[in-house]
């Protein structure tokens, strides 16, 4: 909701100030300027990134209007880890083999469809539970493996934000390109059209610069920052899973292991000790 309000405030402030200064909205409607700026930005984006990045960024951008990383989601992650570790402690690590081999059919994972829907995070949990069930890796070795994978996950999660940020950096330049082309058209008309028509063409050229700068600092720049925040929150969940599983591998009981994970979570939506305890009792 805050992001939608932010977009509305940007439009209302810019266009409201323009109209109150006796500007005409019609003068800002320049579809060919939009085509130059938008097309050039899209082409540069496609050149700079792998083919799959466009759809990845598009899907992530749509999710910016409602974050899944909230209090309830954090609590679900911790409850899932507690249940699976509690089962392994009571019945042995081999008892969870069916759960980690086919999470979709697991009675435990099926209780948490929001987590199960994230194939990457589900695979992350199951892979390390498989390693732990083998019993051949010391806790410090397991932690080292976590750290290596988290480094690559961090790079992958941050890529959409970096890609959008580069587009934001280039948009003012593409706005200048559109403006220069508009001036070229205007200069070619000197002596052929009336002064009023020349003024219209100059105004259209300046709209290109305006649109490029507005898009960069009013929309794409904030979007890249929002994607960066989302990546940090997702990485934080992976780190909480790591803390929980490493603690369990070190011999901590499930109740204490998930407490290690809880402490790693960002404070903004972190469940309290009492809430987690009540959730575990409910499980």
UniProtKB/TrEMBL annotation:
- Tell me which GO cellular component terms the UniProt record holds: plasma membrane
Q: Where are the transmembrane segments?
A: 37-58, 171-190, 202-220
Domain Motility protein A N-terminal per the UniProt entry, residue ranges: 4-92
Q: How does it sit in the membrane?
A: Multi-pass membrane protein
- GO biological process terms held by the UniProt record: bacterial-type flagellum-dependent swarming motility; chemotaxis; proton transmembrane transport
- Domain MotA/TolQ/ExbB proton channel, first and last residues per copy: 135-239
Report the locations given in the UniProt record.
Cell inner membrane
The UniProt keywords, alphabetically, are:
Cell inner membrane, Cell membrane, Cell projection, Chemotaxis, Cilium, Flagellar rotation, Flagellum, Hydrogen ion transport, Ion transport, Membrane, Transmembrane, Transmembrane helix, Transport
Q: Which InterPro entries match?
A: Flag_MotA_CS, Flagellar_motor_stator_MotA, MotA-like, MotA_ExbB_proton_chnl, MotA_N
Any matching Pfam family: MotA_ExbB
Mainly localized where? membrane
Q: Which family does it belong to?
A: Belongs to the MotA family.
What is this protein called in UniProt? Chemotaxis protein MotA
This protein's gene is called motA
């Amino acid at each position: 909701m805050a992001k939608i309000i932010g977009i509305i405030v940007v439009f209302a402030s810019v266009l409201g100030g323009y109209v109150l200064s006796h500007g005409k909205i019609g003068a800002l409607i320049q579809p060919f300027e939009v085509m130059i700026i938008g097309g050039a930005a899209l082409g540069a984006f496609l050149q700079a990134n792998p083919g799959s990045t466009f759809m990845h960024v598009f899907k992530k951008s749509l999710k910016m209007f409602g974050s899944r990383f909230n209090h309830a989601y954090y609590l679900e992650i911790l409850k899932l880890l507690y249940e699976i570790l509690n089962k392994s402690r009571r019945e042995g690590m081999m008892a969870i083999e069916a759960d980690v081999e086919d999470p979709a059919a697991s009675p435990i994972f099926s209780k948490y469809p929001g987590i199960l829907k994230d194939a990457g995070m589900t695979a992350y949990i199951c892979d390390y539970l498989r390693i732990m069930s083998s019993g051949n890796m010391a806790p410090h070795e397991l932690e080292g493996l976590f750290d290596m994978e988290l480094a690559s996950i961090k790079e992958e999660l941050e890529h959409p934000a970096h890609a959008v940020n580069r587009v934001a950096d280039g948009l003012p330049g593409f706005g200048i390109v559109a403006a220069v082309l508009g001036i070229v058209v205007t200069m070619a008309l000197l002596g052929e059209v009336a002064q009023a028509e020349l003024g219209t063409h100059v105004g259209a050229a300046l709209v290109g610069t305006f649109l490029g700068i507005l898009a960069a600092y009013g929309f794409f720049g904030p979007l890249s920052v929002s994607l960066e925040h989302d990546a940090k929150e997702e990485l934080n969940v992976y780190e909480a899973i790591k803390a929980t599983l490493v603690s369990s591998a070190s011999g901590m009981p499930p109740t204490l292991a998930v407490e290690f994970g809880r402490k790693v979570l960002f404070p903004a939506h972190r469940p309290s000790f009492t809430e987690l305890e009540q959730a575990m009792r409910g499980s």
